[in-house]
Design goal:
Blueprint lengths: L2 H6 L11 E3 L2 E4 L6 E7 L6 H9 L11 H10 L4 E4 L9 E3 L7 H15 L8 H8 L5 E6 L3 E3 L5 E3 L1 H17 L12 E7 L5 E6 L2 E4 L5 E13 L8 E12 L3 E3 L10 E8 L11 E10 L6 E4 L1 H6 L12 H6 L1 H4 L13 E4 L6 E3 L11 E2 L9 H11 L8 E3 L3 E2 L17 E7 L3 H14 L3 E8 L2 E7 L3 E7 L8 E2 L6 H22 L7 E6 L3 H6 L2 E2 L2 H7 L5 E6 L25 H17 L17 E10 L2 E10 L4 E5 L11 E2 L3 H6 L5 E2 L3 H12 L7 E6 H4 L42 E7 L9 E4 L16 E3 L3 E4 L4 E5 L31 E8 L6 H10 L17 H6 L6
Parallel strand pairs: 23-26, 23-28, 28-30, 31-36, 36-37
Antiparallel strand pairs: 1-22, 1-38, 2-13, 2-21, 3-5, 3-6, 4-5, 7-8, 9-10, 10-12, 11-12, 12-13, 14-19, 15-16, 15-18, 16-17, 19-20, 24-25, 25-26, 27-29, 31-32, 32-33, 32-35, 33-34, 37-42, 38-39, 40-41, 41-42
Length: about 900
């Protein structure tokens, strides 16, 4: 909180008390069916053995499984009228369609392109086109499938048929368009477009046409409403759950100048959505989007787009090739391709939209008059308001019951537990920090952050080895030395050579020179130091055609005994008359309040990195020593890095890496030593080597120990059938442990491990995949109808809710409070408001699923769930609750040290 906030003397109003929690989701009505007649076809049987041999012979092949994801994407890209594409090519059904395609040439082209670009690029002498052509036509058969069909696993969890995941979302999306269902606030001239099939079978409808938006800074872009259908299950719940969630989809409006790389193993890419009006594609009479990915090279004026190899190979032969314009023409002039404001002459031209993603920047129509800035992000903000979710939910309650889908009933609230009061694990410890800066106000901001926000007292300064060193004392002691980093934090110029090999060699040489300079200027002094480094913003380096030095700092400084936290220069002057509190002076200084807050965040984070951690609290029924263990699996180039972190109530925090051939014995290390081990490349295993990962997980369980302990694991990274299938929804059986790497169906129930044979062990599985977990909102029923008001748009009292919510006796939803930075009034709706509201960021109470998987007889599920939820506030480096609990949150932060 800033000094300005303190002087106001205002207090936040008490949050409303809600007696019920509403989860806007639907379930299939018991014993009802939703039959649909379809055409199905298997994968060409004669082709499969040849493909498997070719894939096995491919050099540097890392997986025994065919890369079917690429085939599915290509089949969907050609717009063949297929509703669903299966991943198991040996199954009886590969394709689902309402009608067999009148022309199977697009399917042939997709299959041939997939083979030649992904499966067998090394067999250029094989006439794959003729082999594929000989395997067609496909063998289509008629069948009737129940789109609500599901069974029940032995642990009580719904087990949907495989076709339900693939087909029910597409069916609901097509029903939306065919029956002309409308969104709240939908305009008369707007219609719906069918979106591409998602990776897990989800399907969306988009409002058409997209709307234009220009913000106060001159940024221009397009946006539209997206409604997504998903099929989900929850542990020990025998209901088939359908989530319908609203989203804001953004499209680029002007020429893109920067598209970031998402994976170190792949080049930068972007997604273009091609608008296809109804009737253009055989078998599909609905307007739809085709997904067309492009590969991106270069930045700014040197940026170039090209279709991915599969699409590039297909397009020239497609009957609908006119739908695919030149990718570079799309990039150079997005306005000409967005389909808006067209005359009769251009009305038939292809429509292509760049799907915006976080990090994209675009050229401004006019440079900023004050700053000269030429680029900006997208003007629209994502995040719909709770009212938008509930408005959509209420609207669908009118139509989905006709398809045997009923709304989930409200859940009653339960008593909440306060988060434990935190104490420093090692009070009085001295931490060495250094600040490399050139802007004088940057140190002033750090000084004010320490003395004005973090409770430290300035205890003097001295000169030491040519540096000015300041001492601060609070719950710990800080020795802060100041130095000028000079060119150590400057950008590195982009290589200008013509070939990728030459550019790569130049970049390596520049990195080696900078690495030597860093090690000479900042030698290892044998004591851990936290380095606050002042560097420019990424966009400034891009504008100057330079590489951002931050990744190299993260890679090099841990090898010389330093952890690094970057801080943008503080150059702005506070304005006492500013409208925004953040721009006003902090405690009468010339430093803005928001710059001091920013400096405080950087100081907190670097203190966390050098070991300023909280004392681990105990669960309610544990009185003696207690250990918290978490397992996190990070990804690296072509491999996995399992991280095993432990904390005890005695104040220790350790980390352990998986043993590898280069380091066969990995002992636990202090947590502060982990960054150095990671940048040295330790702990990395191959992604396909699942057995070592399962063995490392078994080690984390400490099956031979009787100590009081809790293991917290993330479902997303460990529930793979080859790692720990017991963590899957339909296998996880409370208090009946099946160890990692073991097939649950092959284990005799008599061999399950129980709390009797594993004293002291507790396991909590968390799921933080927001696509899988229902949202939750507070709700109170109205005993008597209130007089109608303009803002009374829902038939009950509603609002945000935070706390623990019971789904069943082992599964809980946990919702964090709204962050202080999200102050948009709850009545603001992006459905019902004007377009200006789209520039404002909305906040949704995203749920975390907590499953108490294994507990001791004296434990209560709700107590353990509340303890894990409380660990999301167990931090000294941030006041805001985090998405993941303590230690798991720290493990994820360690990913920035993994190459």
């Amino acid at each position: 909180m800033t000094e300005t906030d303190n002087d106001s003397g205002t207090k936040k109003p008490a949050p409303p008390r809600y007696e019920n929690i509403l989860t806007p989701a639907f379930t299939a009505v018991a014993d009802r069916a939703l039959p649909l007649g379809l055409q199905t076809a298997p994968f060409p049987r004669s082709l499969l053995p040849r493909l498997q041999r070719a894939w096995s012979s491919k050099p540097k092949n890392r997986s025994p499984y065919l890369p079917t994801r690429g085939l599915r994407e290509l089949v969907e890209c050609v717009g063949s009228g297929v509703l669903a594409v299966g991943s198991d090519l040996e199954a009886d059904t590969w394709l689902h369609a309402v009608h067999p395609p009148e022309n199977e040439l697009p399917l042939q082209l997709a299959l041939e392109a997939w083979i030649t670009t992904e499966v067998a690029p090394h067999q250029s002498d094989v006439d794959w086109f003729s082999l594929v052509k000989a395997a067609f036509p496909l063998e289509w058969t008629s069948s009737t499938l129940d789109l609500l069909g599901h069974g029940k696993a032995p642990n009580g969890t719904a087990r949907p048929r495989s076709h339900v995941y693939q087909l029910l979302p597409s069916y609901l999306a097509t029903q939306w368009i065919e029956n002309k269902w409308a969104l709240p606030g939908q305009k008369q001239n707007e219609s719906a477009v069918l979106g591409p099939i998602g990776e897990r079978g989800e399907r969306s409808v988009y409002l058409w046409p997209p709307r234009e938006l220009t913000d106060d800074d001159g940024a221009y872009g397009l946006w539209t409403h997206q409604t997504k259908f998903r099929v989900r299950t929850m542990p020990h719940d025998d209901r088939l759950i359908i989530r319908v969630t609203p989203h804001i989809t953004r499209f680029g409006g002007t020429t893109p100048v920067y598209i970031p790389r998402r994976s170190p193993e792949k080049p930068p890419s972007a997604t273009v959505l091609l608008y296809v009006p109804g009737g253009v594609l055989s078998g599909i009479e609905l307007a739809q989007f085709l997904r067309a990915p492009v590969l991106v090279t270069g930045r700014a004026d040197e940026m170039s787009w090209r279709w991915t190899p599969g699409i590039a190979r297909i397009v020239p032969s497609l009957p609908t090739s006119h739908l695919y314009p030149d990718p570079n023409a799309i990039r150079a002039n997005l306005r000409d391709h967005n389909g808006l404001d067209r005359d009769e002459k251009s009305d038939k031209d292809p429509v292509a939209l760049l799907l915006h993603s976080t990090g994209y920047t675009y050229l401004l129509d006019e440079p900023d008059a004050e700053t000269g800035r030429k680029t900006d992000g997208h003007p629209a903000e994502t995040g719909l308001q709770p009212i938008d979710h509930l408005l959509l939910f209420e609207q669908l309650k009118e139509v989905l019951p006709g398809l045997h889908l009923e709304p989930v009933n409200p859940i009653g609230k339960i008593p909440q537990r306060r988060a434990p009061r935190l104490e420093v694990a090692t009070p009085g410890t001295m931490h060495r920090l250094e600040l490399g800066h050139t802007a004088p106000r940057t140190y002033e901001a750090v000084h004010l952050a320490l003395t004005g926000l973090l409770g430290y007292t300035h205890a003097g300064k001295r000169n030491e080895a040519g540096r000015e060193v300041h001492t601060y004392r609070g719950d710990t002691e800080i020795q802060l030395s100041l130095f000028n980093p000079g060119t150590l934090v400057s950008g590195m110029p982009w290589p200008t050579e013509k070939t990728p090999e030459e550019r790569g060699e130049t970049r390596r040489r520049l990195h080696e020179e900078r690495t030597r300079a860093l090690r000479e200027a900042l030698p290892d002094e044998g004591q851990l130091t936290g380095s606050l480094m002042e560097i420019g913003k990424p966009v400034s380096f891009t504008a100057a055609h330079q590489d951002d030095p931050k990744p190299l700092l993260k890679k090099v400084l841990p090898t010389v005994g330093r952890h690094v936290q970057c801080l943008h220069p503080v150059t702005r002057t506070a304005n006492p008359d500013a409208k925004k509190d953040g721009a006003k002076p902090f405690q009468g200084s010339q430093i803005r309040c928001d710059d001091v807050e920013r400096a405080a965040s950087a100081v907190r984070d670097i203190l966390r990195s050098v070991g300023h951690l909280p004392q681990l609290p105990r669960p309610r029924n544990v009185t003696g020593p207690f250990e918290l263990t978490v397992m996190h699996v990070a990804r690296s180039r072509g491999g996995l890095v399992p991280l095993l972190l432990r904390a005890t109530t005695e104040g220790t925090a350790t980390a352990q890496l998986a043993p590898t051939t280069s380091h066969p014995h990995e002992a636990p290390m202090p947590l502060v030593d982990l960054p150095r081990a990671l940048v040295e490349g330790r702990g990395r295993i191959r992604a396909r080597d699942r057995a070592p990962l399962a063995a490392f997980l078994t080690h984390a369980l400490a099956l031979d120990s009787s100590a009081e302990r809790l293991l917290v694991v993330r479902a997303q990274t460990l529930r793979n059938s080859e790692i720990w299938p017991w963590l899957q929804n339909d296998h996880i059986c409370p208090d009946a442990l099946v160890p990692p790497g073991v097939d649950c169906s092959a284990v005799d129930p008599a061999a399950w491990r129980t709390p009797v044979t594993l004293p002291g062990l507790r396991i909590v599985r968390i799921n933080d995949d927001s696509d899988e977990i229902p949202l939750a909102f507070g709700m109170n029923t109205l005993d008597e109808p209130e007089p109608e008001r303009n803002d009374d748009v829902l038939p009950y009292e509603w609002g945000r809710y935070s706390g623990l919510i019971p789904w069943n006796d082992r599964t809980y939803l946990a919702v964090n409070p709204r962050p202080d930075t999200h102050q948009l009034a709850k009545s603001v709706s992006k459905y019902l408001g004007d377009d200006g509201d789209i520039t404002r960021h909305g906040a949704n109470p995203t749920s975390l699923e907590i499953h108490v998987s294994f507990k001791q007889p004296a434990d209560k599920s709700v107590e353990l769930a509340a303890y894990v939820n409380g660990l999301r506030r167990c931090h000294l480096h941030t006041k805001a609750p985090t998405r993941l609990p303590y230690l798991l949150h720290l493990a994820r932060l360690m990913e920035e040290y993994i190459d």
